[in-house]
Amino acid sequence: MPRLREVPRDEADKDVALPLYNLLFGERDPVADPGTDTGTPGDWWTVFANSPDTLKHAAQGFAYYRSPDRELDPVLRELGQTWAGYATGSQFVFSQHCKSLRGLGVSEEKIAAIPSWQTADCFGGRERMVLAYADRLVTHRGRVPDELFAQLKAEFSEVEILELTYITCLYDMHAVMSKALRTEFDDRDDPIVEVAAPEGFSATDFLDTGR
Q1: Which of 38, 126, 186, 203 is the most exposed place for a label (fewest CB within 10 A)?
Q2: Closest alpha carbon to 6 in 49, 38, 39, 37
Q3: String of b and e for 169-205 (b: at least 16 CB within 10 Å)?
Q4: Exposure of 56 by Cβ count < 10 A (0-12 exposed, 13-18 middle, 19+ buried)?
Q5: pLDDT tens digit string along 83-92?
Q6: How confident is the model at residue 210 (pLDDT cuts 50, 70, 90)?
Q7: Confidence at residue 4, expressed as pLDDT on a 0 to 100 scale
Q8: What domains are defined for the chain?
Q9: Which residue from 61, 33, 38 is spatially nearest to 48, judged by alpha carbons?
């Protein structure tokens, strides 16, 4: 379960949270009767409802990237968002945006190849450029080589580059927050833990084996 309290329907802010609850959950209390149409528990919404201002700000971000006023191709935008989820290790963000890519008509071959896009031959030049830039934003924390940025500027408008940068970094943030708060599909234990040694095997034995 999430690390922060979930806000039930009868305590939801009437101006911000309740309209979103109605949209996503109908008349149900999403805490007592969880689940969304997309198959997620829906607890991202109920956790963010602890702070109506935070929920409102986040929801405005969703409206921003989906707006028809965006100049960036939605498929390229989603490639950046999906890579942000994968590279950050957020199963929630990665899974949701794989579905968004599918909804935009992207092939199963491309969706399956995102984790290994560097060696996949199914992506076009613009797609590879977007994935390379998204990787530099997320994995390398914004360290973008001049050569790559020059290639972006030769292919995309400055508005498109700014939108791509903003949306990819926005979803890097969402991926990090989802993992930290253990919301949705990120409610899982960290797999990197010490594995216990066999019974009777001491710490000095490890030194003796040279491992």
Answers
A1: 203
A2: 49
A3: bbbbebbbbbbebbbbbbbeeeeeeeeeeeeeeeeee
A4: middle
A5: 999 999 999 9
A6: low
A7: 98
A8: 9-64 (no CATH), 72-183 (1.20.1290.10)
A9: 61
